[in-house]
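Recap for those who missed Tuesday's class. We walked through two folding examples back to back. For each one, the amino acid string is listed first and its predicted structure tokens come directly after. Nothing is annotated here on purpose, so try labeling regions yourself before you check the end of the notes.
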Amino acid sequence: MNRWCVGAGVGVLCVWSFAGWCQSLRLPSYISDHMVVQRDRPMALRGWAAPGVTITIQCGSVHTQVVADAEGRWRAAGPSLRAAETAELLVTDGVATQRVTDIVGGEVWICSGQSNMAMPVRGSADAEVAAGVQMPGLRAFATTAKPAATPQEDMPGSWSRAESPQVLNWYATAFYFGRKLHAELGVPVGLLMVAWGGTPVEAWIPRPVLEKLPVATNFLRESDTYAERYPKLMEDYETKRARLLAQNKQEELRNLRRPHPPADNPTLAAVQFNNRIAPLVGVPVRGAIWYQGEANAGLPRAAHYGELLTALIRSWRDLWGEEFFFGIVQLPNFRVPQTEPVEEASGWAALREQQLRVVRSVAKTGLAVTIDVGQEDNIHPIRKTEVGERLAAWALHGVYGRSEVVPCGPLYRRCERRDGTIVIEFDYAQGLHAKGDRVGSLAVCGADRVWKWAEGRIEQDRLIVRSAEVPEPVAVRYGWADNPPCNLYNEAGLPASPFRTDDFPLPESSSPRR
């Protein structure tokens, strides 16, 4: 076996080659027709050929020659393209020639996560409008890569342009994000669509990084023993399925999940990093957008999500050798609407808090709050336009310097106890208001930590919280539930993130799934 080792700072990641020598000239799948390359950055060109062969590269007026190494790999820096500048790439080894046409300079973004990122445009609320789009400058790379036990050098895939009907198969969140950027910036946008449904964050983190994280110890053990546990998992599955069939419990049957065969399990440690991120390492990008967390939303696991997501961001940045931007979609509202002042055991609330904490602690990150676009009975809410456009608002402000664009809804900054109330201050709170008669999902507690419903009054973009039942409040929570009726917004119409002012220990397990 031959190996290509990459990545300083996060351990050595060895990418196993395909069996045998690469005898013919070949390019990785993302270097293909209609590709968007990050503008004003040298193209990162690479490929395979017979060992020792001289490779001649022509792109526009730039000619380069490199020699394939002993394992048949070659790398070269191509020219930089300005925004909307087009080019054609010719690569030859003297026998075969690879031609890549319709390359364009623009803004390139990785679009990753689990099923809510992968949800296609055709399933979104605005699919009918999206189906008629004609934006040849908005482009996406799609792949069918399977889970991999080790990091890969390439993956199957191709680029397409935003012209119906193929756009209906694009990731909805990515499409609406890219459409907004394309319209506002007036430059081409390339979306690298590399998500997979049902995957935990641990599947997207390099194995050497996971091994250094104490919070990943249990997950690694479960992942590494999956193959030996698989026969028993299948036996239990068949037993339960037979029982549900006999009882004609159709809803439970629909929710019953057949265990993945070990070689095809997309949820194991690092397998998604290996098959969908490793092949892109070194490709110049502006940043990444990330919609994931549902698979990690049970307690106590959710309470450690921030550490894992921070490790993911830093490991990807280390491998790329740059601190690229990273936009995070906060989990929306889901399940039975809130009935108690606080749902102490809400794993979804705990995970939202972790996502907020990452944005507060990791540079060049942003948050798209979606607490108002979820659905009680659908883990895949259809309002993806708001999700994509809220990510775009963050990017326009924080990445592209559009100071007039509000990047986010109100984010909790600090609080102060004052005369039987707690005064809450936010960032991005200009024009703070509640939609409806009162601020929803507010709770306070005293020293006894018994939560009571609270009232909120807005003064000068601050929230003053009180409850007649708690004369000496010590803490406030807003939206601490799976599906809270949150209704705080800023003047840009962006919702406030749920938050808590306390650091009380969270329960060790989540509420039963409803």
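Example two. Treat it independently of the first, because the proteins are unrelated.
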Amino acid sequence: MDAIYTRRQIQRVLIVDDDRDIRQMAATVLELEGFEVYGADDGDHAVLLFKSMRPDIVLLDALMPVVDGFDACRAMRDLDPGGDVPILMLTSLTSAESAERAFDTGATDFITKPINWVLLAHRIRYALRSSAVSKRLRTSQSRLRHAMSLARLGHWRYVYESGAIYLSDELCAMFNLEADTSLTVAQVHERLHPADRTLVQQHLDRINDHGEAQHLEFRIALGNGDEHMLAVLAEQVLNADGRPCEMFGVAQDITERRRIEDRLAYLNHYESLTGLPNRVLFRDRLQQSMLEARDQNHLLGILFVDIDRFREINRTLGHETGDRLLRGIAQRLQEHQEALTTLSHRGGDEFLVLLPRLQHAEDLARTARGILGALAEPFRVREHELYLTASIGMAMYPTDEAGPEELLRSAGVAMYRAKEFGGNTFQYYRSDMNVRAMERLATEAALHQALGNKELKLRFQPQVDLQSGRPDGAEVLMRWDRPGHGLVPPKEFIPLMEESGLILSTGEWLLAETLQQVQTWRAAGMAALRISVNLSGRQFNDPALIDSVHRVLDESGVEPGLVEFEITETTLMQDVDRAIATMLYFKTLGIQLAIDDFGTGYSSLAYLKNLPVSTLKLDRSFVHGIGRTDKGNTAIVRSTIDLAHNLGLEVVAEGVDNAGEYRLLKEFGCDRAQGNFIAPPLAASEFPAWLIGHDPTDSARWDASHGDTSAPPAK
């Protein structure tokens, strides 16, 4: 084939603009349409790229620092003297002088800013086609006709006197007619889509009555019977007497362009992953429903549905599995969708439900219960069987707030309140929830500054060997001394750190600060003790964790055998195989491993023999009341200690608050304990004093001296 007809399957566009947002937006729009997009932020870089890659078309910003678009265009034309590559100047300049300067430097055309993104791909395709046409014009008229055919662009003229419409060869081919064929007005009218006939006639009347040139788009049946969309430009031609004698115009088949525009409109209103209405379309429908509710005096409600712990699934099983799961959730919710409701995927793991006509508030609750019930059935994604719950916030109009955004915000606030209750539930919006939501935002904002402002403090809670009474390590805990608030309870800020990702940087800081403190104590002559450090779920699943631990250990010089990582059951059970691999690696370093809060997560007894751990930590909820008020806890604690010992594991009891619990745990053979009866969490400066005040050689006398009181031991 002649080289002139050869074209790359994927056409390359060079976008040159010092505005990063414009480059990114152009890339997004054009890559969606099949273009390969390259970017440059200045004229020098653009010329180098032009020389090395030879793009099919260039979009060139006129005004840029250092080398502007005009100089860059001139340099590109020096490399392309034939003008084969179209250069479209992007400019907000509207003066004739600027346009003339652009053309003088070799620009093919210009596009004014702000850019019409919907039409950009069409403009580029048209520019590429026009460039090809111009090139072929220099070769022969036959190649021009071929180019016009490729562009599905032709011309026509209507003669008033004869009533005939003459079509160019391109239009004849488009209509599957012989060359030089003419049509009557009636023949064209028959081919028009019935719904467009009135529109076409109105445009023709304007031309005939007022002589105004017209641009119109209409549907027409071509020769093979397929319906196409034509864009037509038409104007009158006057004779020497100034009277209309002809009507002349051009026509282009824009079916493909219209398909793209319709696709863009769809993407603007529907979420691509699930095919559900997105937040834009949902808001439009909500606004319309609110107007109807006001006029017709009925209620409407919205549900804000957030899938509980979805981020953990994404982190553990990967985003592809997460996407499959989201599609499954959307399908499941659609199957339970009631008439007239709108189900929307807001993004991520969030869905919205609009119920436009309600009789009672209970109707909203009934729908929420139905959603929770629908999600309760397990989801099968590849080889995984996943069980889901959701937190649902509910708001009603006109009961709650007046505008669409306020109503959505209210439902979101109620959803977060449902999460605070542990998820798998729903909550109606109440005005006092806004106060809590604002407090939560303020707390999260303050947390971002806490580490840099040195507001985070370490506390060390001693652990003792129950059989000898000797100190046997400590668990390091984090406290937040927030200015104006005092010490903030961990349950109020640790979950926020998890959600925001701050736990990653803060966790590394805590480990480094702890090991540095251990070295400080040792330099002062204190004996080496085992230090237990909690790893959150997000830390444990962070790919950078191993490198982080290596770095901190190397910098501190602390032996790995003095470090014990505590990991919760829930974290371990998310991906058992991956958890075991990570734990084995830590074990090879010499780090000790413990299961934290044992008994509160999954029923993981069957997995214990496979986990490379050395310690179980009994949760305080089981320790509380043993031997006195809770026989059930007593049985659980005793059997767990026996089981752990049979598996070769040590047991540490948390939350030991009185002598009765202490003595019974010792009787059951529990290995270690910690709690306020032994010592509360201590500042680093207080910890050595506690060791000195606690006589490790006379544990029997220490036991007897405390009787059944709940006071902590002497310091």
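Answers for example two:
The chain has a mean pLDDT of 84.
The chain is about 45% helix and 25% strand.
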